[in-house]
Amino acid sequence: MAKSAASSVVRCLQLLTVAAVLAGAAAGGGLSTSFYSKKCPDVQSIVRAGVASAVAAEKRMGASILRMFFHDCFVNGCDASILLDDTATFTGEKNAGPNANSVRGYEVIDAIKARVEASCNATVSCADILALAARDAVNLLGGPSWTVYLGRRDARTASQSDANANLPGPGSSLATLVTMFGNKGLSARDMTALSGAHTVGQARCATFRNRIYNDGNINATFASLRQQTCPLAGGDAALAPIDVQTPEAFDNAYYKNLMARQGLFHSDQELFNGGSQDALVKKYSGNAAMFTADFAKAMVRMGAISPLTATQGEVRLDCRKVN
Predict the structure, then answer these.
(1) What distances in angstroms separate CA 170 from CA 45, 268, 297, one per listed residue?
(2) What per-residue confidence (pLDDT) applies to 30?
(3) What are 105-119's pLDDT values in tens digits?
(4) Catalytic residues
């Protein structure tokens, strides 16, 4: 029985990779699967080795890298603008409200970039490294893989105000989520699948305190559990796993949590609260292969949000600053 189940999982992953390629063909945004095949043929193995080392040291880092990619793409496209440090004359996105206390792992991307530069100087963009790293982070935590379309270039600027305006928050309503994802060309189904990224990672008390003390649509035992480490006042930086069941494994437990009214964020529980996404949450909770296939396809589409290509932007030598 176990061998049969394992074989089924392998077949599903093979099929979803094909599906992701087909989806990406329509959503590639001028990107290519063979962009570095001659210029930097080892880039994918270099990135994966760097991510594997970081995840082996701290599994939470896999979720952090995935979150960084999401927060990059939702602010003026997948252009590595989130990686730019502030300077005396420039205010970037790192200290925007949604990023300051929740996005981490910049040093992992720095280390990978250094290895890539040593192999093929001034060739691979930070934006492409981040896109590859997000895919590998998911896969190394037990999730699916997909074909990453490449050829992005790096932004020479960033926008703290756009980061504050364009990233959905933990208190967002379903209507707000649908609108904000729709503004990026992503469907409600994409939004529900991408939200499944919350099956891994941890969150600060400040982001879910209102949920566990004031929301009505929450399991009382779950609320009490989270209140033990997140007091009504103080302790903002205390961490809790977003997925109460398997916080370090990329699986479909997130959707099972929602059905049990155990979503950590108000925005999570909005996906299963008598609204338009209830039926899809039910399907994902009972069909892991459907979730991972949809997640992979949605990641391809998200990775194609407004990329800089051709002569736009630049290939940064240091991800933290423009050339």
Answers:
(1) 35, 8, 24
(2) 82
(3) 999 999 999 999 999
(4) 71
Domain that holds residue 271: 191-290
81 is in an annotated binding site: yes
Residue 13: per-residue pLDDT: 45
Radius of gyration, alpha carbons of the chain: 19
Residues 120, 197, single domain; the answer is no
Residue 41 known to bind ligand: no
- Per the prediction, the chain carries an average pLDDT of 92
- CATH number of the domain to which 43 belongs: 1.10.520.10
246 is in an annotated binding site: yes
Q: Is 234 annotated as a binding residue?
A: no
The response to whether 72 counts as a known ligand-binding position is: yes
What's this model's pTM, rounded to 2 decimal places? 0.90
Q: Do 129 and 14 have their domain in common?
A: yes
For residues 278 and 258, what is the distance between their CA atoms, to the nearest angstrom? 9
Mean pLDDT value across residues 163-178: 97
Residue 2: per-residue pLDDT: 44
φ, ψ dihedrals at 153, nearest 5°: -120, 165
Query: Are 7 and 64 part of one and the same domain?
Result: yes
110 closest CA partner among 321, 319, 322, 323: 319
Number of domain units in the chain: 2
